[in-house]
Amino acid sequence: MNEKGLIAVGCAATVGLLLGGWLWMENRGSDDPFAPCRTSVVAGGTEQLGGPFELTDETGARITDADLFTKPTLLYFGYAYCPDVCPLDNSRNAEALDLLSAQGVDAQAAFISVDPKRDTPEVMADYTFNMHENMIGLTGSEEDIAAAAKEFRVAYQIQDDGTPDYLVSHTTMTYLVLPEAGTVEFFNRDVTPERMAEQVACFANAA
């Protein structure tokens, strides 16, 4: 399956999450402190997205999800050699961080590689340095990444054909993770940086 095909699968999965969670959201009602901020619904709640993991950051240090999520975090799975989708999505996330900073909201972005063969800590450090000062790059072993991706229901497929420029298909949602609260929202690719910043600020202020 090529990258566009897997993105389409990701979109279909998103629709399923929305439809599957509608009744749950109706029943939850005012018990949700973030209700005024939400636009996405996941069956069982967005807290079903995410869980414990351990990865390697861009300095080579091992960190856990608890180490990472110390402030509102825009989390994205992709890879540094991605020719088009990842740079656009990460740039959008970086722009949202600048808009949030102007509003006094302290937030960060995290970029988890699904391509451990090429994405060493050094590669991730260079990538995030050029993207945004408040973006953290994470990589790890194949097992580390598979475990983290599973927690967030991220699908990916490495199409290693033996050439240096092989592609990796992956889903492309950005997750908003808050300290203590966990995953509270996800954003599709068509969300603008302005809209993303508006929603992140809403969640951060409601936390």
Structure description:
The chain is α+β, with helices and mostly antiparallel strands. The chain has a single domain (3-206), classed as Glutaredoxin. The chain has seven helices and nine strands, in the order ααββαβαβαβαββββα. It has helices spanning 3-20, 22-28, 65-68, 85-102, 121-131, 142-151, 193-206; strands at residues 54-57, 62-64, 73-78, 108-113, 135-139, 156-159, 167-170, 174-178, 182-187. The strands form two sheets. The protein has a seven-stranded mixed beta sheet with strand order 2-1-5-4-3-8-9. It has a two-stranded antiparallel sheet with strand order 6-7. Strand 3 (73-78), helix 4 (85-102) and strand 4 form a beta-alpha-beta unit. The radius of gyration is 16 Å and the shape is globular. Residues 8-29 have low confidence and may be disordered.
Whole-Å distance between the termini? 40 Å
Question: Shape, please?
Answer: globular
Spatial strand arrangement across the major sheet:
2-1-5-4-3-8-9
Topology, number of strands: 9
What is the CATH class?
Alpha Beta
The Cα radius of gyration reads 16 Å
The CATH architecture is: 3-Layer(aba) Sandwich
Q: How many domains?
A: 1
Which structural class do you get from the secondary structure elements? alpha+beta
Low-confidence runs = 8-29
What's the overall average pLDDT, rounded?
A: 88
Helix content: 25-40%
CATH topology: Glutaredoxin
Task: Please count the helical segments.
Answer: 7
Order of helices and strands: HHEEHEHEHEHEEEEH
CATH superfamily: Glutaredoxin
Biggest sheet features = 7 strands, mixed
Q: Could you tell me the strand content as a percent range?
A: 15-25%
